């Protein structure tokens, strides 16, 4: 089978930035793309863009992936409309900059809830379909900051490092069932999340300044992450699992 057979791919956070590019790319490759996003309006817009391009997609937002009940209900709707979920891209994420001593319990828990619990809930919702099919692909979007560490982001980096460890462990467990699990840690990709950090003076310089310091001399594009993701969910990537595929212009090696 190839992805052109219309396998169902769920993309969380597919209404913006990297998730939007992944949704477009997987739909262009023949997947039926289900977009789950906290922002139901942007999810709907992206699904409309994809359908206007002649591909298959639907929005199932507003869905907060940190709520198991909302995740389970959304997956039920996806199954009813499209069929079993064989590809899952855990992309939705919540960033934040705080001095360590200013991280409250609430901020800590919310950051882990979205980035780590959400990934766990979505995997538990999707894996039964993959086990039944004897085939599945999971890609978790982590962060290059989990390689390097990042000041004022210890809560976010802890969550994303958790995603990397989770990915490696799940890959070992699900490999015998035909399911691969990999993670892409993006670095410095030009999205609303990055521009928001820039506008609040949190990047330690402008995006252009950082682009000059990047080995490939540009910021990443959402399409760079989408291309790597499209490969990892393809048939031909079946011998790749438990891997961390950095897409960061050489900023982390
Ligand atoms: P983005 O433009 O802010 O898009 C993230 C999307 O996820 C938004 O539509 C957001 O909705 C949604 N979302 C947030 N919390 C959610 C929740 N609880 N449930 C469901 N959806 C939720 O961010 P991005 O830059 O594309 O980032 C995508 C992923 O890459 C994230 O996991 C991020 O941590 C990771 N990443 C990005 C970079 C980078 O350079 N851009 C670097 C490293 C890692 P709202 O707009 O309503 O919040």
From TrEMBL:
MF terms (GO), sorted A to Z: 3-oxoacyl-[acyl-carrier-protein] reductase (NADPH) activity
SUPFAM superfamilies recorded: NAD(P)-binding Rossmann-fold domains (SSF51735)
Cellular location(s): Secreted, Cell wall
Record Pfam families: adh_short_C2
Sections of the chain in a coiled coil: none
Record-annotated Ketoreductase domain positions: 7-187
Protein's name in the database: 3-oxoacyl-[acyl-carrier-protein] reductase MabA
Swiss-Prot/TrEMBL catalytic activity: a (3R)-hydroxyacyl-[ACP] + NADP(+) = a 3-oxoacyl-[ACP] + NADPH + H(+)
GO biological process: monocarboxylic acid metabolic process
Signal sequence range: none
Family, similarity comment: Belongs to the short-chain dehydrogenases/reductases (SDR) family.
Keywords of this entry: Cell wall, Oxidoreductase, Secreted
InterPro entries in the record: KR_dom, NAD(P)-bd_dom_sf, Sc_DH/Rdtase_CS, SDR, SDR_fam
């Amino acid at each position: 089978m190839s992805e052109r057979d219309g396998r169902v791919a769920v993309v969380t956070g597919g209404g913006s930035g990297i998730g939007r590019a992944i949704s477009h790319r997987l739909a262009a490759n023949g997947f039926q793309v289900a977009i789950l996003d906290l922002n139901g309006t942007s999810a709907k817009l992206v699904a409309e863009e994809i359908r206007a391009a002649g591909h298959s997609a639907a929005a199932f937002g507003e869905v907060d992936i940190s709520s198991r009940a909302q995740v389970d209900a959304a997956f039920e709707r996806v199954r009813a409309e499209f069929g079993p979920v064989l590809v899952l891209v855990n992309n939705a994420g919540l960033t934040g900059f705080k001095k360590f001593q200013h991280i409250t319990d609430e901020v800590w828990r919310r950051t882990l809830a979205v980035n780590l619990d959400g990934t766990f809930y979505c995997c538990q919702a999707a894996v039964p379909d993959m086990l039944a099919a004897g085939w599945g692909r999971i890609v978790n979007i982590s962060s290059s900051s989990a390689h390097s560490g990042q000041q004022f982001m210890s809560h976010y980096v802890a969550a994303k490092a958790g995603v990397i460890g989770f990915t490696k462990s799940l890959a070992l467990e699900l490999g015998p069932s035909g399911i691969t699990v990999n993670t892409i840690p993006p670095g410095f990709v030009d999205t609303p999340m990055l521009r928001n950090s820039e506008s609040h003076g949190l990047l330690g310089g402008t995006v252009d300044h950082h682009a000059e310091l990047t080995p490939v001399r540009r910021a990443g594009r959402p399409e760079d992450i989408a291309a790597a993701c499209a490969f990892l969910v393809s048939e031909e990537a079946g011998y790749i699992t438990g891997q961390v595929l950095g897409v960061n212009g050489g900023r982390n090696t």
